[in-house]
Amino acid sequence: LKADNARKWKGFDAPYANLRCIEAAAANTNIDDGLKIEREEFGKLMMGSQSAAQRHIFFAERQAAKIDGLPKDTKLRDVTKVGVIGAGTMGGGISMNFLQKGIAVTIVEMAQENLDRGVGVIRKNYEASAAKGRYSSEQVEGMMGLLTPTLSLDDLADCDLVIEAVYESMDVKKDVFGKLDAICKPGAILASNTSYLNVNEIASATKRPQDVLGMHFFSPANVMKLLEVVRGEKTADDVLATAMAIGKKIGKVAVVAGVCDGFIGNRMLSKRQQPANELLMEGATPQQIDTVFTEFGFPMGPFQMADLAGMDIGWHRDTSKEPTNVREAMCLAGRFGQKNGKGFYDYDEKRNRTPSSEALAIIEDFRSKSNRAKREISDQEIVERCLYPMVNEGYLILEEDMAQRASDIDVVWVYGYGWPVYRGGPMFWGDLEGPAKIVEALERHGVTVADSLKAKAN
């Protein structure tokens, strides 16, 4: 039983406490002895941090649905038909959320080939679910019958909500929203799936900024529960309330975020990734850093994640240029990640990873050319330099009113980024670690500490 559930139970105390109770019950004929062990295990769990963390997330999820300062009687806009621009992985996944709830979707692509491929993937995903018994063939056909594929933006004219999932470029998005402004009916909500771009600037491409906001889905969008709803400077109250309600209707945990680079989740992620790269240059290996993360409870570490996403995303592909970072050096060596079986790790045909001597040699070569000294890095230093800055950034986000409450930040990280639920999210965990301990470590590593975190530490 332990072996069968090792992955699912990893890091959790409760399943193993339950097993100890069962083993005790099987081994003892005296019920009083069995009940004594059960009380002891229950007491340890009840008073432990994991119970507190999971109760915190339970209530935090429900609190996240509340919009501060918004009248409870705010009338929602009707959303019976949704438009999605882009039929790629993200656009297709977003569409599936609505189709599954019986909401008609018009999906737009620029090329017929891309449109056909996207619709085909949606059908394939539904048929795979049907094969597992989740849907009947009739339900699959019913959902696909609600989908209208098209090559024309004009077909979005009667949609109540339009979500763009196009290339992450401000110029591209402003062009799309300018066209939507002319096409969409009055009162239609225009949403961007951007993961970090300025929603206010996107809204400026329209004459109706009050109808514009961000709806940042996470990949795969038909699976991941988090939805960051980004409130623009001019976003109307009823637009925000409607987006939050729609998120709940399609099974998402929606969290309100303000307009800043990366919003809540990706803004904090950058504070993790940057020091991880620095640690690599100072002597830590990808495997050591990733292991610290997985032992903490994350499903994967930053370099495993880079390999999964693809090392060549955003790479300039100019082989004549000298690499400016290790990732570019990897790409120059043809190491793109899982997609071609080699990145920071080597992968077999089943995508099982092993440490790569070639990748380590590339890192060593880049370090020597950068005149960086190599030293031993402790696991504790990795925690202090990668996770403590995330807590600090959370405090800055709160100081700037980019999140409504600390618990919202925890919800974002548990539901969108794999933060272990039994640690309660970065803000809850930061309190457990101790603000004074975090401040001391951040200052020792040269990080500017948020005023509110300093105040909490004193």
Can you describe this structure?
There is one protein chain. This protein has 458 residues and is of the alpha/beta class. Helices cover 52% and strands 10% of the residues. It contains 21 helices and ten strands. It has an eight-stranded mixed beta sheet with strand order 3-2-1-4-5-6-7-8, sandwiched between helices. Helix 2 runs antiparallel to helix 3 and helix 20 packs across helix 21. The longest helix is centred in the N-terminal third of the chain and has 20 residues. The radius of gyration is 24 Å and the shape is globular. The chain starts with 5 loop residues before the first helix and ends with a helix.
Question: Short summary of the structure?
Answer:
With 458 residues, the protein is an alpha/beta fold.
